[in-house]
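Section: Multi-chain targets

For targets with more than one molecule, the full set of components is provided together so that the structure can be written out for the assembly as a whole rather than chain by chain. Components appear in the order listed by the source. The example entry contains two components.
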Amino acid sequence: MFEISSKILDYFGISSDFSVIVVVLVFFVYGLFALTFASLFAGITSWYERRIAGRMQSRIGPNRVGYQGFWQWLADGLKCWFKEDIIPKDTDSVLFRIAPYFVFTGVLSTFVVIPFSPTIVGSDMNVGLVYIIAITALVVAGILMAGWASNSKWTLLGGIRSAAQMISYEIPVALSLIVVIIPAGTLSLQKIIQMQGGAPYNWFIFHNPGTFAAFFIYFTSALAEGNRTPFDLPEAESELVAGYNTEYSGMRFLFFLFAEWMNLYVIGAIATAVFLGGWRIPGIAYEVQAASLWLQFVGFIIFLIKALLLVNVIIWLRWTLPRLRIDQLMIMCYKYLIPLSVIMILLSVFFTVIYYSLPFLSLAVRIVLFILSLIVAGYFGYRVYFNIKYFPDKTYLRWMI
Amino acid sequence: MSFTNYLANIRNSVVSIFEGMAVTFSWMLRRPHTVQYPDKVDKGHELIKEGFRGILEVDVSLCTGCLACQRTCPIGVILVEVSKGTERYITRFDIDAAKCMYCGLCTEACPTNAIRHTKEFAYSVDDIRKLVLHYIKEPVKPYKPVKDATPDNFNAGRFVSEIVKNREKEYVEYEAPSVKIPDGGQTEKEKN
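Its structure, encoded as tokens over all components, is:
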């Protein structure tokens, strides 16, 4: 952003006395862009997820408002906007009012370091990943605040569960990111993307077996940290009415949902940036891409496609797996994910050291891992085909929207 | 928990998630079971299976005026009036569709199959009194059953009543399996 503002200063010939104003303006515009992007994403995902859920459960889903129900998210938003903002009598009124904005800010703040293209990024911090892990703690505070201030046992239980879960799962998230930080040697998201190649076998996910497993560990624990199914215990409808947002209504309630759906993109974007090569285009060097505006745009699209694919997987998982029990959740974190990610860190250290003396091994391991994952993907396709072909009821096999 | 157990847990979770996701994905490639009524289908009648109990319908030309349906109806939905005299006439056959609970007892009692369920299910009106269906506009002579009926000289009554009789026989012959109470199988109240 500082580069862009200095370019603007040069282009219009403004003296450097006004540089503060220009910098503030540029940051303001970028903030608006990030906010709009995140809100649009959250809104459209709310409709898209319900459509996908419908199809997976052999239903249709919302299809009334506009083409295929596309404007459903606007209708829902308008509805929540016009609803009465109820604040129950015995609540801690101040905490109750500000809690949704804490959650919203906590998720939106991660957009500061999430890159869109080589130069379009809020701030390319040298501690980017640490910043992300730190700022998402604000979400815990907000949720706990909401749970406490609502003065209801369901919300309090939901809030406490959420706090326990998110604090526990921040450990495997951080540990699995360290697995990549070791070969990358940096915490800055842009630098990490820069170190990866455009072609799939140059991504950090295929760098060594450690990072390959770390991707799945990160993905699982990020789901848990973002309160998504199968780890959505804070909002378990069957046990707690709706968890920490039971007492909320109207726009405040919507802010919680906004944060939840924005978090989908955050999970996808961090996984894309750290493991899946980010905005790199195959066969084009970083310097060339950074210089050209069009290539930056292509990089933005590539980044978006990868992130949205991961968002799809998250939605797909939500409608596949049942919810875990609270003790199973904690067992999974402390007995499985944390020890495994520590082992992956050791593996990653081992391979990183070995690659220095045996460079050819690096390429061999990358290609072997890439081919292995292609085989797994192929087998997955076969299983889908098998499920369709050998299902007794052939009536519903045609596509219909 | 042994180490092999630990590894088996990891393997099981990975395999089951893999298989589960393949199943849900295969369902995503299928057509939904849900039918978009009334967008895609006008009436929906062709989708309804045989034996559906919709709104009741009376074929007045088959009605014998026996009042069997009126008597069987548990909640008094049906009102039949037959004029007395040398010539019998059915002067009234009303069905209150708002009250009907679609038990289907009247259709089983009817000897000629004059009263039966249709596949009609959508009949909302602005006034509940419009749901009282008057099937007789002017007095009608009752139907006289034909003796020694074959499928050619159609006599629905005999055919249906045989089915009902057979059913009744089945019910009589069916014996409930005797349930043995194990020794000491008393309820808590009896113990006390």
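Residues 155-168, 170-192 of chain B have pLDDT under 50 and may be disordered.
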